[in-house]
Automatic annotation (TrEMBL):
This is Dipeptidase PepE. It comes from Serratia rhizosphaerae. It holds the Pfam family Peptidase_S51. The keyword Hydrolase applies. Belongs to the peptidase S51 family. Keywords: Dipeptidase, Hydrolase, Protease, Serine protease. The keyword Protease applies. Its EC number is 3.4.13.21. InterPro entries: Class_I_gatase-like, Peptidase_S51. NCBIfam families: PRK05282.1. GO terms for molecular function: dipeptidase activity. Coiled coil: none annotated.
């Protein structure tokens, strides 16, 4: 199984989609001899699906087709060499995955056929057991359905630890601590902008071009920033050694 779970699509001032992870993604494309990729853009609300596919074609150097052109989304997933899941709204994305019958086909593609999965923002959220740690507004009257569960821990993309002057609501840290208090057996990985987790060949790696760490939130455990994956290795069922 190979996963690229990215906090976001672009860094501030960066024009190229997934540019900060381009080196790792191109290495994967070359290593796997990929000739095409399938985009699942259901999270997008105010962006064009085909424009997003074209951006990814330029980044990856291989043709990227959007799944909305397929008469059978499940068949498109079954034939895909690589699955790309765009950012946007996690609630809408997860609902569309269920309504189009794609949860099991994606799980089988990634786990059984070893099709690489690349998801950023909302696409990162749905790779976890649920979307309960998304920052997105529930724009539809959606129940919190299970998501893909490819990665065993919850992730909070776009993590920011700043306290905005004049803001009287809870900080992100406080919200994530609340999640862990309500769900004491679960852990949350908080990813700053421009960072990613990479799972490949039973190894787990963390990458940040800015040199920032990630935070791990657990109930009744002090929250710390980590630069390596040692803190995660005890929590995920991968042999990372």
């Amino acid at each position: 199984m190979e996963l690229f779970l990215l906090s976001n699509g672009k860094l501030s001032g960066e024009a190229e989609l997934l540019g900060y992870a381009k080196e790792q993604l191109l290495e994967m494309v070359a290593r796997r001899h990929l000739t095409s990729a399938l985009l699942i853009p259901y999270a997008l609300i105010r962006s064009d699906y085909d424009e997003r596919a074209q951006e990814l074609t330029q980044t990856l150097g291989i043709p990227v087709a959007s799944i909305h052109h397929s008469s059978s989304p499940a068949a498109a997933v079954e034939q895909a060499e690589c699955i790309l899941v765009s950012g946007g709204n996690s609630w809408l994305l997860n609902q569309q995955l269920h309504e189009n019958g794609l949860i099991v086909p994606i799980q089988r593609a990634v786990r059984e056929r070893h099709v690489p999965y690349v998801g950023w923002s909302a696409g990162c959220n749905v790779a976890t057991p649920s979307i309960r740690t998304t920052n997105d507004m529930p724009v539809r009257n959606s129940v919190v359905l299970p998501s893909l569960g490819l990665f065993p821990l919850q992730i909070n993309p776009h993590y920011i630890d700043a306290h905005i002057s004049g803001h009287m609501g809870e900080t992100r840290d406080e919200r994530l601590a609340e999640f862990c208090a309500v769900n004491p057996s679960e852990s949350v990985v908080a990813l700053h902008e421009g960072s990613l987790l990479h799972v490949c060949d039973n190894a787990l790696r963390y990458f940040s071009p800015r040199g920032q760490g990630y935070k791990l939130f657990r109930h009744n455990t002090a929250t710390q920033e980590h630069q390596d994956t040692l803190a995660l290795q005890a929590l995920v069922p991968f042999d990372c050694h």
